[in-house]
């Protein structure tokens, strides 16, 4: 016969004892750990505290992995994973995100971002800002939310005016006479690149991929390789952040402007720098430019 010490009862066999332990309120067994608790509260605390269990005590549900449990918390229980805190409702969680300096949160869109720069990029996008920066190119008529977006448009070669990255580089060399955002030593090298166009043919196939003959990177298609060659990837870094404590370098004016607008280094706090950089874009916008 089998005997239950806790209940002081005999059973005909171990099968009957096992059924008793599974059904009796005096037995609260964790089958994974093989531990018997005298109360349901004791078993529940075990589930909550044990690293072996991924348990939601609010729903009395078990999950296979901690990631699954965390996803459940966020979906069902107004949970902030970064802070490990639960809130009573969606409004409480929203206010937590809005007021906490730890989170990069757009209250209007109720969206979190991974970094302050990503949040700033979102706030500076057309979602929150009007397209108030017109393209000065003849025959274009498009408008953009920022100077960086305008310059990227001009550099892309998609402007109806025929603008290109080479034109933008040449324009900057002619107008940035004080070298606020350009490195004169590297401008000499960059100047020789205006007339250079790299174009790959089928001969770039090396048996596995289309290979760039400048950096030897491989591409799946010839079009992808030519897109790579048309990018500023192999041009000199002629642009430089004007802040003395930063001086980060860039191959394209649009990249520099995105860096400035992201406020990563605080360069926009200096009025003299703002004036010098805005003067360049302002000179573009004061007239309908002809690209040659």
Polypeptide structure, described:
This is C2H2-type domain-containing protein. It comes from Mycena pura. Residues 54-77, 78-103, 104-133, 210-239 form the C2H2-type domain. Pfam families: zf-met. One of its GO terms (molecular function) is RNA polymerase II transcription regulatory region sequence-specific DNA binding. The protein is an alpha+beta fold and 292 residues long. The chain is 38% helix and 14% strand. The protein is built from eleven helices and 16 strands. The chain has helices spanning 14-23, 40-49, 66-76, 90-99, 116-123, 147-156, 165-175, 184-191, 222-230, 253-262, 271-285; strands spanning 2-4, 9-11, 28-30, 35-37, 54-56, 61-63, 79-80, 85-86, 104-106, 111-113, 133-134, 143-144, 210-211, 218-219, 239-240, 249-250. It has a two-stranded antiparallel ribbon with strand order 1-2. A two-stranded antiparallel sheet has the order 3-4. A two-stranded antiparallel sheet has the order 5-6. Strand 13 (210-211) and strand 14 (218-219) form a beta hairpin. Helix 6 (147-156) runs antiparallel to helix 10 (253-262). The model is unreliable at 190-195 (pLDDT under 50).
Low-confidence stretches: 190-195
Work out the radius of gyration: 32 Å
Helix/strand order, N-terminal first: EEHEEHEEHEEHEEHEEHHHEEHEEHH
Mean pLDDT: 84
In DSSP terms (H or I, runs of 4 or more residues), the helix count works out at: 11
Shape: elongated
Q: What composes the largest sheet? A: 2 strands, antiparallel
Strand order of the largest sheet: 1-2
GO molecular function: DNA-binding transcription factor activity, RNA polymerase II-specific; RNA polymerase II transcription regulatory region sequence-specific DNA binding; zinc ion binding
InterPro entries: Znf_C2H2_sf, Znf_C2H2_type
Protein name: C2H2-type domain-containing protein
Domain C2H2-type: 54-77, 78-103, 104-133, 210-239
